[in-house]
Amino acid sequence: MLEADGADEALNRVNTHSKPSDLRITDLRVAEITGAPFASVLLKIYTNQGIVGLGEVRDGASATYALMLKSRLLGENPCNIDRLFRRIKQFGGHGRQGGGVSAVEIALWDLAGKAYGVPVYQMLGGRFREKVRVYCDTDATVPSGTETGKRLKQRMELGFTFLKMDLGLMQIADVPGAVVSPAGSLEGYRDHPGRGPLKTIEERRVCNAAYDLHNVPHPFTGLHFSDKGLDFLEQYIAEVREVIGMDVPLAIDHIGHISMQSGIRLARRIEKYVPAWLEDVIPWQYTDQYRQLQDATTVPICTGEDIYLKEGFEPLLKSGGVSVIHPDLLTSGGILETKKIGDMAQDRGVAMVIHMAESPIAAMAAAHVATATENFMALEYHSVDVDWWDDIVTGLPKPLVKNGFVTVPDKPGLGIDDVVDEVISQHLQPGVTGIWLPTDHWDDEYSWDRTWS
Ligand SMILES: [Mg+2]
Q1: What is the pLDDT of residue 190?
Q2: Higher-confidence residue: 183 or 111?
């Protein structure tokens, strides 16, 4: 009896992964950072047993999308991941609006893993691979295929075995006669609505007007590539291939908001350079147009980084309009949803690559799914030039991306020990005054939300 009491007393002193059944969520807080490589929001979910779950809100999204969920989570056992996910999933949406639900879902997996002492990939069913192949994204800002090829070659020398680059509208927007466009329409794409506080109503109006322009779906922009434009783009990828060779996979992104017909013409022009995929040629919602696009070319057609939930992927996969899907865990609904999406794609012979443009928290969440999903091909890495990226967290191999691969450690949860406040504090978003600040004002958020009656 005395011995049993002693054991209980000892257990009470252990405040991590001690009593998963009694684990409860006590708080949600955020750190809004920028430059890793874009703006994103690191999320902490705190518990009554001292363990903290890490998540991340998608690049470009708002912390509000996660914080507004706080009142739905307080007092709950974070190990009931799927039940909590189904409670909150109505508060997510496509694109950045999926960022809050997804961030929370990832932090719940981290907590469950830490509570039971198990890596996330193991809870998903175990390993399909020992290390996760990373594809290195490279913005093609230079107006020369040869120069971009040299930059890509440098990536290969760092050990990357899979590459991606931009090829499209913005490379030829300044070339006279390269783009057929309604007068004035191209200029607007150069302005991007930025982050941070605005001083005047007029600044707000201009910002929202820029939003409107960037939200015109491709079929309605009136933009088409001319033969001269297509010649330029074909020459560009030819120069790139000349430098990097034909052996290495090279994916193509940022074609621009051009017509599907221009997308088909570009795809046919570049077939002989064997792109790994052509990404987001048109909005993913146009399922029938995706089918037409894929039927018209041998280049694998890809989309998915803005799709929320497996239900969003289903029509595209059923239509045969994609050969590669590209979910972002921070939009798709998180870890388990992306595993389900990958498995659904596999049933139709479609490969999964994973979009990722945030900190090592997002990278590890994606790497666990990549480890545990059979049809996974490559994980995006956009931060090869960010020298403080690895310093955001502790407990992971440094560098995390080594010779073009991530090795997922056999540690509980995501495998991250902690985040480094000193590093984060040096890279806050404009207008942000601190990290992990109290969020009490979200404790009583309420509305009678139900998606049926
Ligand atoms: Mg993309």
Answers
A1: 77
A2: 111
Alpha carbon of 280 to ligand 1 centroid (Å): 7
User: Residue 42 phi/psi, 5° resolution?
Assistant: -80, 140
Cα(302) to ligand 1 centroid in Å equals: 9
Q: Token digits for 265?
A: 């013409």
Q: From the CA of 198, how far away is ligand 1's center (Å)? A: 28
SS3 of 8-52: HHHHHHCCCCCCHHHCCEEEEEEEEECCCCCCEEEEEEEECCCCE
Q: How far is the CA of 268 from the centre of ligand 1 (A)?
A: 20
DSSP secondary structure letter of residue 415 = S
What's the gap in Å between 70 CA and the centre of ligand 1? 30
CA of 204 to the centre of ligand 1 (A): 27
List, for residues 96-154, the tens digit of each pLDDT value. 999 999 999 999 999 999 999 999 999 999 999 999 999 997 777 667 999 999 999 99
SS3 content of the chain, % helix, strand, coil (to 5): 40, 15, 40
Looking at residue 139, what is its pLDDT? 76
Tokens of 164: 């991606």
Which amino acid appears at position 345 of this protein?
Answer: A
pLDDT, averaged across the chain: 94
Residue 91 Cα to ligand 1 middle (Å)? 24
Q: How many CA atoms, within 13 angstroms, populate the side-chain half-sphere of residue 139?
A: 9
